[in-house]
Amino acid sequence: MKHPTFPGIAPSEAEKRDEALALLETTRANLIAAAKIIATRIARQNGRVTSPEVLKLLRESPAWAGLVAEVDPRFMGPVFRKGWTRIGYSSEGSHNRPVAVWALKGTEK
C-alpha cells in the first residue's frame, strides 16, 4: 500500500499499525467498547489490568462469548490506546509471553 500523501513512499510500520487499529475501532466498535468498560472496572478495583484479564471476562459473558470466540484477539489493540499508561509487563500471555500491564492515566503508581 502506498502512502496517501506521498504515493512514491511506502507507509511506515507505525502508519500501518495506526490504520489497522482505526479499522478495528470501526469494525469491532461494540466489542471494543465492552472491553473498555471491563478494563476500566478491573483497573479501578485492582489499580492495574491486562488484556488477558479483560478477554477472560468477555469469554465468560453470555453477551460476548460467541463473538469473542470468532474474532482474532488482536481486536484488543485499541482498548488501551487512549486514557491508559503502560506501567510494566506480566507473563500472563499465551505460553507465558509478556503482556503489557495498564493503569488508567493519572492513577499509575
What would you say about this model in short?
By secondary structure, the chain is an alpha+beta fold. It is 45% helix and 12% strand. It has helices spanning 13-27, 29-46, 51-60, 65-70; strands at residues 84-90, 99-104.
Features:
109 residues
- Secondary-structure element pattern, one letter each: HHHHEE
Give me the secondary-structure category.
alpha+beta
If you compute it from the alpha carbons, what radius of gyration comes out, rounded to the nearest whole angstrom? 16 Å
| Cross-sheet strand order for the largest sheet | 1-2
Shape descriptor: globular
The N- and C-terminal alpha carbons lie at a distance of 41 Å
What is the chains' assembly state?
A: single chain
Total helix count? 4
Unreliable spans are none
Name the helicity range: 40-55%
Q: How much of the polypeptide forms β-strand, as a percent range?
A: 5-15%
Biggest beta sheet summary: 2 strands, antiparallel
Residue-averaged pLDDT: 85
The total of beta strands comes to: 2
What would you note in describing this structure?
With 109 residues, the chain is an alpha+beta fold. The chain has a domain at 13-82. The protein has helices at residues 13-27, 29-46, 51-60, 65-70, and strands at 84-90, 99-104. A two-stranded antiparallel sheet has the order 1-2. β1 and β2 form a beta hairpin. α2 packs across α3. The mean pLDDT is 85.
Explain the layout of strands and helices.
Layout: H1 13-27, H2 29-46, H3 51-60, H4 65-70, E1 84-90, E2 99-104
Antiparallel strand pairs: 1-2
Helix pairs in contact: 2-3
